[in-house]
Hints:
Radius of gyration: 19 Å
Helix content: 10-25%
Low-confidence stretches: none
Number of strands: 5
Bound molecules: zinc ion
Strand order of the largest sheet: 1-4-5
Strand content: 25-35%
Structural class: alpha+beta
Mean pLDDT: 91
Number of helices: 3
Order of helices and strands: EEEEEHHH
Largest sheet: 3 strands, antiparallel
Amino acid sequence: MIDEEIKCPECGGNLVFWKEYLVTKTRNISKNGTLSKRVKTTTPDHIIGMEGFQCNQCKWLFNTVDGIEKMDKYPHLMDWIEEHECELKV
Ligand SMILES: [Zn+2]
């Protein structure tokens, strides 16, 4: 278990966990230039590393890709991710 509270280090507000996915939508075009109404959508694909925390109140943002210094500063948040890995998998 993690001892430290999972809250915003700036204002103490509640955090959300966010995760970005890449989706491609394709539509056929006939030779006369008509665009089909049917849209094919790929299964959402998680963009590696594009995930992290954000504060609901002050919008403090922690991205696990570019937040290297924050990963060192707030190891309990990284522990939280590890603990919830299964739940965070979509
Ligand atoms: Zn905050």
